[in-house]
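Known limitations

Files may contain more than one protein. Parsers should not assume a single record per file. Below, a two-record file is shown to illustrate correct handling: read the sequence, read the token line, then continue until end of file.
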Amino acid sequence: MNILITNDDGINADGLIELKKSLEDEHNVFVIAPLKEQSGSSHSLTMNMPLRVYEYGKNFYAVDGTPTDCVMLGLNKIFEGIKFDLLISGINYGANLGDDITYSGTVAGAMEGCLMGLPSIALSIDVDFQKRPVYVHYESAIKFLKILISNGLNFKKDTFLNINVPDKPFQEIKGIKVTRQGKRTYKDVIVENTDPRGQKYYWIAGTPVILCKDEDTDIYAVENSYVSVTPIKMDLTDYNFMEELTKFLTNKDFFNSAR
């Protein structure tokens, strides 16, 4: 297979390096990732400055932009003409669960691949940021990924997979759960402080507050030692609300009343 890898942790991130090493013996691996960490960049494009590309080795490139920039540049220019079979964004240092996926650069990399017609996966490992472990079990995420690839999953059009793996030895993972997106927000999101010159500055941080972790959610699965696999659909339309909204707007006749 021809596999394109990107991430949001940056070109030198351990998760990306481990993923590349594990796949290149069996597949043709191409890497294009941000030069620096782009966590929280979401599905953003760089449009107000030029992008520069740096070659780190054969089929191994860094871009001074976002994960979305990387995928767009990779498919349309740097690796133009190559027919890719799969895009993998990761392995991210830290889970992308619940509402976090809307901010995630890792998820955005897979999203862009999906938009461009590629079977795409966002792959993350649930590292405990409070403990900052010395060793991260990237091999568990890789082993699950290889099982998935070798069994020939057929991807649905306009849908990509958001996969989160517990940071545990593979034998301690209980299994796989196909999940829906849970719900968690954050408290104390903005930290205010003062620099040595007396000027205020702000740091976006926060402690997760889980609002929904039902048994069918990604949050529940990972907390209970399961691999979470969530299919994410690109069409964000709320079809259930369309009929109600249509009736409301038609009955009120907003358009004609404004003439």
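...continuing to the second record:
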Amino acid sequence: MGEVIGHITGLVVVTLLFGGVPATIVLIYYFGRRAKHKERMALIEKGMDPAIYMKEETPYHNALMWGTLILGIGLGAFLGYILFDYASMKAEYVVPTLSFIFAGLGLVGYYVYRKKTETKNPG
């Protein structure tokens, strides 16, 4: 009986991982695009040009955001393994925790950088 429950649990986890996560990503993308489309249509109906509200992104901003995120995760994992080796802490807890903390710090740093550059160069 326990073996059957283990197989069912594994099947549910695999199904959610390979089916639920991609479905969630697709749905978030779909509803985001749909909301943007409705907003543009409302602007057109009012006689306004929707292009004036669309910010032009420079190509390096997206790469910079992902770079800071990945750098933060790598730095957090590296420091987590150092703490695991030298401070006798459990790697299962300290490595993911520090990875998330440093990933968040990387994204906060990116946000501060973007706000600073937007105030210098509005438009």
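Parsers that stop after the first record will miss the second one. For reference, the second record is described as follows. The chain has two domains: 1-54, 56-118.
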